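Run log, item B.
One chain of 241 residues. Sequence copied directly from the ordering sheet:
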Amino acid sequence: MTKQALIIGVGALNGLGAALARRFAKAGLETVVSGRTQEKLDLVVNQIQDAGDTARAVIADATRPDDIAALFEDIASKGSLEAVLYNAGNNAIIPFEQLTPEQFEDFWRLGCMGGFLTAKSAIPIMKAQGSGSLIFTGASGSMRGRPNFVHFASAKAGLRMLAQSLAREYGPQGIHVAHVIVDGIIDGERVRAIAPEYIESLGDDGAIDPDEMAEAFWQVHAQPRSTWTHELDIRPFKENW
């Protein structure tokens, strides 16, 4: 039976989603990469296949129940589901007085609702197996709200509580639910495109390397049941926290 890992929220090659896909594929799992842009997914799949590992792409919008249901139906038909990583999310600086209800809802849908939809489809599969990892990508906003980030912090805090509730309910049934707090700037394509000078100003190891962070996610997944971690925080050594 094919052992699969699903990464939801895969974009640029130099991003966390792609790094997670590479790491789980390297471990011998058939890695399913999912996102909204076919061209980006194809680049990630090709890179993994060129390395001699196995991956395939499935287009899905994490905020659409039908998309997520179809994604998991496809996976369930092809083998076991060893790990699901919910990495979908976005961020922007928006002062509260300029924040619209539509923007607030959009951030909540991707940052929190998508995690709920993912769990609703993943949990029954893993429950039937009696095993599996469900890992959510969090942020410093999961723990604290700051000015101009009401929309982001609200969504991330909700996702954290979703993960915590699921861990308490389904951990005893063999499902490892974890939440990884990313506290720092990821040295990826998104930030490099917007603020390359800021990345450079942080100096050596001042920003988070996506592949090194992906290793931490893998280690959480690989933990034996007697020593499960629910929440892990990751930050550069010089990050002010």
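Observations after the first pass:
- The chain has one domain: 2-234.
- Strands lie at 2-8, 30-35, 55-59, 79-86, 133-139, 176-182, 231-234.
Flagged for discussion on Thursday.
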